[in-house]
Structure formats: C-alpha cells, structure tokens
Specification:
It contains 21 helices and 26 strands. The protein is α+β, with helices and mostly antiparallel strands. The strands form 6 sheets. It has an 8-stranded mixed β-sheet, sandwiched between helices. Strands 23-24-25-19-20-21-22-26 form an 8-stranded antiparallel β-sheet. Helix 3 links the parallel strand 1 and strand 2. Helix 16 runs antiparallel to helix 17 and helix 19 runs antiparallel to helix 20. The N and C termini lie far apart (100 Å).
C-alpha cells in the first residue's frame, strides 16, 4: 500500500475506536511490507493469521499481489479488503471467498473507457496494455465492450511492466505511427506511460492530432512526472472510479487529512477509508461462515453511496480526469465527465485536448488503399508460349529429346507455367482465397522444376559414378516416383500450414497508404512454416546445383549437367538478392516490383537453360531437313557431278580423284565461353571419315587418328545457319563450324552425302543415341 493509503486507513481505525463501535475493544494497525512481491505477500498473510488479535487484513495495492494474499487469508477465514485491486479474477467468490473491495473491478472499468470513446465519436483505437493481471483483464473487458459498440481495435500491443526505458516501446510506436490511427489507449501504469510519451514525443506523436487515454493506473502521473515530462501531458485523459463523494463525510476526511499530513489524500486513498461501521462487529467476531450478503450492505461513505454486487464488487461510476495546462504554468487535473454505471456520460466541463481546443480530433487519418493491379496479359501469353512444349511430344524421337527424358521435360515446363501464373496471386484484391493460392502456387512450381532436375542429375551422377559397374535400376518410373516424393514434402508442409494457421488478409498501414497483406494469426507459426519451406527448397536447389557441378565434365552430347548448373547458380544468386532486399525493406510497392522482376528473369533463364534450347534444336533440325530435301531434289542428276543452287546461280562441284578434301574453317566448341578458332576439316572419301584438325595443335593430317574424327554414318550434321554455318556432333562433342564460302559449304555437303557409289550419311537428324568415334 502507498503511504497515503496507509495514513488514511489508520485514520479510519481511529474513527472506529473514537465512535465506540467495538465497546471495550481498541483496534490498531500491524504493518507488513510485501515490496510488491507475491512470495512475500503470502508469507506476510501467514504471519498475520498467526499473530494474536488480528481480525482482518487491509490491502494489497496491486491485483497481482492481492490475489495470492487473498488465497492465504481464505485459508484462515480472515476477511480481506482492498481499496485499489481491480482485477476481475478477484470477483470469483468460489475461489476468493473472504475478499471484498471498495472500488469497482476492471470488468467495470474497461466498458467505462469504451463508453467514453464511443461518446466522443471515435471508432478506431489502438490499445497498449501491460502483460500482467491488471493490464490483460482490463484489455479483455475493454475489447468485449468495444466489439458491442462497433469500435475497431486496429492494434493491441502488450508490454512487460515495469518498462525499463523508452526504447522498450520502439516497435509499438513505429506500428502506431504507420497505422494512421490517432486514439491510443494505455492500460498500464503511469511510470510506463511517461516513458512511452518520451519516445512518442521524439517521433512527433504527441500533438494536436493525437489523443492518449489511460486507465486508473495513471492517477499519480502528474506527481511522478519529471519536469521534462510535463510538456507531454496537456490533453492527456485517464479514467478512474469516482472517489470524491462530494458529501460532508468526504469534506471531513479530506480536511482532517490535510491538517494531519499537510496535503490532500492520494489517489484511491478514500476507498481505503470507506468501512461499513455497522459491520465491523461482524468482522471482528470472525463468524465461521462469513456471508458477504449480510456484511456488504449499502451505506454512504467518503466516496459517496457505497453499494456492492452479490460477489463483493463495488458498484460505482467512473470519473474522467483531463490534464490541462495551468494558467500559471504546470499541469492541473480537471474532472470533466462522469461515466455512470449504466454507461451514459455526464459532461461536467469541456475536455481540452493537446491543442487547447475542446473539439475532439479525428480517430484516424484518411489514407488510400494500395492495390497492386497487374493488367498486362504477358504472363498468360508466356504460358501460351510455353505450351509450344508440345513440340517435345511430337518430336519425342529426336535425339536431344530422348537424351534429356521427355517426361521430366514436360513436368519442368508445367512448373515454369505455374510460376508465371503466381504473378496473379500477388496482384489485385487480396482475399482469403488468394492468400491460400500464394502459399501453394510458387512453392509447388519451384519443387516441380527442381525435383525433376534433381532426379535427372542424380541419374547422371549414379551412372558415371558407378566405378564398380553395379547394376542400376534408374528407369523413368523409378525416378518419377522420387520426383513426386520430393514434391510431396512441399505439399505436406503447405497442408499443415493451412490446417494449423492459414494465411489471411491483414491490414497494414504506412504513412501514405494501407494494403492487405497475407499473414497467419501467429507470427511464430508463419515464420516456422515459411522457414521450413525455405530451408527444404533451398536444400533441394543446392543439391541440384552440386550434382550438376559434379557431373559437368561427363561427355554428354547435349551437355545437360552444365546447363542445369548454370540454371541452379543463377537461381541461387537471384534468391540471395531477393531475400536481402525483402528483409531490408518494408516497402509494399518495392517488394512487389522486386518479386515480379525476379519471377520474370528467373523464368526466362530457367526456361532457356532447360526447355528453350531443346525446342530451338528441334526446330533447327526441322528447318535443316526441309532445306536439304529441297536442295537435293533440285540438284539431283544421273551423273557423278552434283549441281548446287546458291543465290540464284548454279555451280558444279566435281569430287577430286584422290578422294580427300580439305576445307579451311572457323570452329567453336559448345562450352559457354568458348571462342572461335581457325581449323581445317578433312573428308576421307575412301574411308568415309571426317576429321577436324586444330591449327594450334601439332598433328599429322595424313593420318586419320591425329584429328577428331568420326565415320560418315556416325556423325551428326545439324542446325544450319545461313549457307555457310552448321553444327557437327562427333561423339559427345558438338562444334559450331563456319565454312570459308558458300561453294565450299556445298562441296562439303556433297562430299559427305551418299552419291550412290559409296556409304555416306544424311544430314537429317539420325535416330542413334550413341556414336562410335575415332579420337586422336
């Protein structure tokens, strides 16, 4: 108990003694200090109960300490009365059977605050409350009445009391500032409120547009304030049970207290004075079955008419106290309104706000909603473009398709299509349905792409890492099962997320606009499921990239591992940049833009590396077949002379007698950063062999084995570009070749094409999956 409450309790004891209410008995006070510690409060209760002559307990000051003390006094059938503990928990008379109080509980105070807010036409508020019994019970009571009255609580933020520094409220203040709401209700203690106001003032959040309303824990805020705090207090409002009864008893108690102690009684002190002198005899006798129905009768005391509910709760109106700038300086506390027990508001004098005006500020600043609309049809166009992957099915016999496994290519293509469709999940009006769609589409799309890439590079790794030549069962069906298993992990995590705590639209307000963001009810759940998906898919991405890197030197015709590695590294780079940007920025528009650009860029690179280049090769081969068919039809003769059609003129090319042809060429390997080099290509007609000789390498061109060579029927000529360029595949190596002239191009094609006298090969795409090759 505070010193003022102790002094006025001793005054009440003196009055009981002087009025002879207990003939022959003189009451005295025995004091124990709990230091607001629950353990000490219980120990003090036990000591009081075992002290001879103790008939009742007055206290405690705070509800959190009063509750355990009340359980102790119950064990000894010892009546206990508090003039300041307001927790609704203490109203439960099945638990706290010997406890009563002379002021209303918080479940009366919370509605009173809501009624005051409603009377001022405020419909949007923010609530800051202490996390102890006092704050949480007040919050629950206020919330219930606010819902009944249609008051929207935009933000409710707990804090641990006592607060140690203004910085404790940094996150709360930032969220309030960005909310647009200007009515802040503080359900806590005055010292904590002063610290918050220091921070709020430094952020420009104490001023004419803000209103701060406190609970009865603010009753000593002026006396506890430092001189530097006074500038933050004009316009501050707090509510408390009406303490001044305005009668002769009140005047007598106050005047005698001033005479004895040189000051007026402190807040809530008069509630410690109001004893029903008619029941002191019953309390003193400590009857075995203490009945509050008999003891708690209505009477007039220093706080006015004292009436109780059936479970020992005081029924009383609430006073609204407004802190105003005093004419001579400083702060004066003015009682401006009374909240009656039926919820009506009686105005005694105008409430002055921070600006000095009596006009209530608006409860919020009108700001527009930000909706990211994506009107472009480009994602759907790209989905349609992706549908040309049907070419893969039509040309499923093509070597490049067979080499790269058609089922996996199609699933990867579907995953990329889904990732483009995710653009629409983040655009337009945010609803519960779009929030669910967000949690599904991107992660499923990602896993469809990289689960299938994983099993593809895993097969390459197992085959070429099989040093013991063990029998391997790596059929498409086996690998497909593995792919679906990897995707299933994502499906399970997302289903669990949607069952436990699904994403729902939540309003987020900035200084200039507000928007709906998809959030789970619990930030812990959202972080847990999000991080689980991020970690799992990150491991999948790293696994794909690692295996692709390990198998990069495998002599594969279409260098699949290399392209998968390029794709994986690019996605890792993009993902790292996005995570950094999203974690360092709360800008809604910026976050949306980054997401869209990354989706576009990631899809473009991934599509080309995995699907696009395959389709380009197929289309090039189709064009080549059509071109060569037309050329051979127009140049066919019955002689050994071949006629080549070139740019409108005819040129006859005769095979040489020695059946060896040498052509100067420019050649480039298929590596990503390969350069064009000068070389020679030699055709050995008699042996049906083609050899490539690099000028930078020392080689004897008279011998076949000194070059990179292959038989006519094992070579693959494809992808002609213009009249001088083509691709030549020799075993696992593919080269881009440019001839010196169009005539030499025609002569080379004629030299390696079947003329009816020898075994040659067609420039159409062969159906063989492997080649017998002669290497130097």
């Amino acid at each position: 108990m505070g010193r003022s409450a102790i002094n006025i309790t001793e005054m009440a004891i003196q009055d009981v003694n002087s009025q002879g209410i207990l003939p022959g008995i003189t009451l005295s006070a025995v004091q124990f200090n709990s230091l607001t510690n629950q353990y000490l409060a219980v120990q003090n209760g036990i000591n009081l109960a075992n002290t001879s002559g103790v008939v009742a307990v007055i206290g405690e000051l705070f509800s959190s300490v009063t509750a355990p003390l009340a359980l102790t006094t119950k064990a000894y059938n010892l009546p206990q009365c508090s003039g300041s503990a307001t927790s609704p928990v203490l109203s439960d008379k099945s638990t706290y059977t010997t406890f009563l109080r002379t002021l209303p509980p918080d479940n009366f105070q919370g509605p009173a605050i809501a009624n005051f807010v409603y009377a001022n036409n405020w419909r949007n508020v923010i609530v800051i409350y202490s996390s102890d019994t006092y704050g949480t019970s007040l919050m629950q009571a206020f919330q219930a009445q606010a819902q009944t009255l249609g008051i929207n609580i935009q933000l409710s933020q707990p804090y641990n009391s006592p607060a140690s520094a203004p910085a404790v409220f940094s996150d709360t203040a930032n969220r309030i500032q960005s909310s647009g709401c200007r009515i802040i209700i503080f359900l806590g203690y005055d010292t904590d409120t002063l610290l918050y106001l220091q921070l709020a003032s430094s952020m420009g959040m104490v001023g004419p547009s803000y209103v701060y309303i406190g609970s009865d824990g603010m009753s000593t805020i002026v006396s506890d304030a430092q001189p530097s705090d006074l500038a933050n207090l004009p316009g501050f409002i707090y509510l408390g049970a009406l303490e001044n009864g305005g009668n002769s008893i009140t005047q007598s108690v106050i005047s005698r207290f001033q005479a004895a102690y040189g000051q007026t009684p402190g807040a809530d002190s008069l509630f410690f004075y109001d004893w029903n002198v008619n029941t002191v005899q019953d309390i003193y006798n400590r009857r075995a079955n203490l009945s509050f129905a008999n003891i708690l009768t209505t009477f007039t005391g220093a706080t006015g008419q004292v009436a109780f509910s059936s479970n020992g709760d005081r029924l009383a109106p609430y006073a609204v106290t407004n802190l105003q700038s005093a004419p001579g300086g400083g702060i004066s506390a003015v009682q401006t309104s009374i909240i009656q027990t039926d919820g009506t508001v009686t105005v005694l004098s105008p409430t002055l706000f921070f600006s000095g005006s009596s006009t209530p500020p608006q409860d919020s600043i009108a700001i527009p909603q930000m909706v990211m609309s994506y009107s472009s049809t480009s994602p759907m166009v790209l989905v349609i473009v992706y549908s040309i992957a049907a070419i893969l099915w039509v040309n499923r016999a093509a070597p490049i398709v067979q080499k790269m496994s058609l089922p996996f290519l199609l699933l990867i293509n579907i995953g990329l299509m889904l990732s483009w469709m995710s653009v629409y999940a983040y655009s337009g009006n945010t609803t519960a349905a779009t929030c669910r769609f967000q949690s599904w589409v991107m992660w499923i799309a990602f896993s469809m792409v990289f689960a299938n890439l994983f099993v593809k590079v895993y097969r390459i790794h197992k085959i070429f890492g099989n040093t013991k030549m063990q029998k391997l069962n790596l059929s498409n069906w086996i690998l497909m099962s593995g792919s679906f298993g990897l995707i299933l992990v994502n499906v399970i995590i997302i289903i669990a997320w949607n069952v436990v705590d699904p994403l729902s639209p939540v309003r987020v307000t900035t200084r200039s606009y507000w928007y709906l963001d998809c959030q789970s009810a619990s930030s812990v759940n959202q972080s847990g499921f999000s991080n689980a998906l991020l970690v799992y898919n990150g491991i999948l991405l790293l696994g794909v990239t690692y295996l692709a890197y390990k198998t990069r030197n495998v002599a594969a015709q279409f260098r699949e591992s290399n392209w998968i590695a390029y794709c994986g590294l690019f996605i890792i780079l993009c993902g790292s940049v996005v995570i950094i940007l999203l974690m360092s920025s709360n800008d809604y528009v910026g976050t949306y833009s980054v997401r869209m650009w990354v989706i576009a860029l990631g899809n473009f690179v991934t599509y080309y590396c995995l699907i696009g280049r395959v389709i380009v090769t197929i289309l090039s081969d189709l064009v080549e077949v059509g071109s060569k068919t037309s050329k051979h039809t127009s140049s066919a003769t019955a002689s050994a002379t071949a006629t080549s059609q070139t740019r409108g003129h005819t040129k006859a090319v005769q095979k040489s007698a020695d059946h060896k042809r040498t052509f100067a060429i420019k050649i480039k390997a298929a590596a990503l950063f390969a350069k064009w080099e000068s070389a020679r290509i030699k055709v050995f007609d008699n042996e049906s062999i083609i050899c490539i000789y690099h000028k930078k390498k020392t080689s004897d061109e008279s011998h076949v084995k000194s070059g990179i060579c292959c038989y006519f029927h094992d070579c693959l000529v494809s992808s002609p570009r213009g009249n001088k360029m083509f691709k030549l595949t020799v075993g696992s190596e593919t080269f881009s070749i440019t001839m010196a002239s169009e005539n030499e191009m025609d002569e080379f094609i004629l030299a390696v094409t079947d003329d009816g006298n020898q075994s040659g090969f067609s420039t159409a795409s062969p159906t063989k999956a492997s080649h017998a090759v002669l290497h130097h």
